[in-house]
Amino acid sequence: MDKKSPIQITLTKRDEAVTITQWVYSTLRNAVMNGQILPGRALTIRELATILDVSPMPVREALRQLAAENALEIQGNRRVIVPKMTAMKFSELCEARINLESHAAARALPYIDNEKLAELIALDKEIDEAQDNGDLEQITIRNQRFHRRLYTANPHQVTLPLIESLWLQLGPFMKLANSRLKEHYTIDRHNEALEAITKKDALALQMAIASDIREGFAFAGTPELLYNFIEQAAADAI
Amino acid sequence: MDKKSPIQITLTKRDEAVTITQWVYSTLRNAVMNGQILPGRALTIRELATILDVSPMPVREALRQLAAENALEIQGNRRVIVPKMTAMKFSELCEARINLESHAAARALPYIDNEKLAELIALDKEIDEAQDNGDLEQITIRNQRFHRRLYTANPHQVTLPLIESLWLQLGPFMKLANSRLKEHYTIDRHNEALEAITKKDALALQMAIASDIREGFAFAGTPELLYNFIEQAAADAI
DNA sequence: TACCACGAAATGTGATCACAAATAAATAAA
DNA sequence: TTTATTTATTTGTGATCACATTTCGTGGTA
Question: Which residue from A184, A207, A212, B216 puts its CA 20 to 30 A from B12's CA?
Answer without folding.
Answer: B216
